[in-house]
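wait is this the right file?? whatever heres the structure
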């Protein structure tokens, strides 16, 4: 049995008004709000963090943001700082999601600044890495993931590293309905753990959760979550509806 508690995080992306988010958060808390066997995190858009925070207050559910800027404050129009997130009772923040990397040009170096700023402000990064289809077909998956992990986590100390959650999200599996096979996913997860061992030592690496993300659904989750290095899921589409998201939480609990 692993020492790592499974984690299921919902990335709601640019979906849900403030009122819709509060309603979905309430539906989730009413069923899973007191669970401690699985860590459950919901990541609504910025505009819904406050209403979602009220909905999860007093429950075990944790609140995550989908992005943040590394600077504390200043002339960064349209951006949000770690301090602002903390003031809304946010505990986690998704960083380096492939949509941020590809659609908004985020580099490993910029993501690294965000990771360091999140940790400095007691926010737990959900740090995303993953290869494109072209990179996989060229046999470059491990090389790409290695560069993303090493550059993205540069300067992170051992004592801070335990706070990090890594999400392996093959870009070709995100929102496409194509899921990595359990063997493909486990291979990369084990590789990421070996990189974390080199960076932070075995004791710390064994404590870091590595989530799988990419079309995870109730039907494919049990097999993925049973893999030794898959410690949960970062869920897009299936997190937008309470029923499918709660089924994934149940699958994670059963996979212990
Ligand atoms: C994601 O965007 O992080 C994700 C995994 O999306 P989906 O579950 O829809 O593939």
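ok assuming it is, sequence goes like this
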């Amino acid at each position: 049995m692993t020492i790592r508690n499974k984690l299921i995080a919902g990335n709601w992306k640019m979906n849900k008004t403030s009122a819709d988010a509060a309603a979905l958060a309430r539906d989730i808390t009413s069923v899973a709000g007191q669970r401690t066997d699985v860590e459950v995190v919901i990541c609504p858009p910025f505009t819904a963090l406050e209403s979602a925070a009220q909905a999860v207050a007093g429950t075990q559910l944790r609140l995550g943001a989908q992005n943040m800027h590394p600077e504390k404050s200043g002339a960064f129009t349209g951006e949000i700082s770690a301090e602002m997130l903390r003031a809304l009772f946010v505990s986690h923040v998704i960083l380096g999601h492939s949509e941020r990397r590809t659609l908004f040009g985020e580099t490993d170096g910029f993501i690294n600044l965000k990771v360091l700023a999140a940790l400095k402000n007691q926010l737990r990064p959900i740090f995303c890495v993953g290869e494109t289809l072209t990179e996989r077909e060229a046999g470059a998956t491990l090389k790409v993931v290695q560069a993303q992990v090493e550059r993205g986590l540069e300067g992170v100390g051992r004592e801070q590293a335990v706070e990090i959650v890594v999400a392996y999200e093959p870009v070709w599996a995100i929102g496409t309905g194509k899921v990595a096979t359990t063997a493909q996913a486990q291979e990369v997860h084990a590789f990421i753990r070996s990189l974390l061992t080199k960076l932070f030592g075995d004791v710390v690496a064994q404590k870091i959760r590595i989530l799988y993300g990419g079309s995870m659904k109730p039907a494919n989750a049990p097999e993925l979550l049973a893999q030794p290095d898959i410690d949960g899921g970062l869920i897009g589409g299936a997190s937008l509806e309470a029923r499918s998201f709660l089924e994934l939480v149940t699958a994670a609990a059963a996979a212990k």
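The chain has a mean pLDDT of 96. so i think its the right one actually
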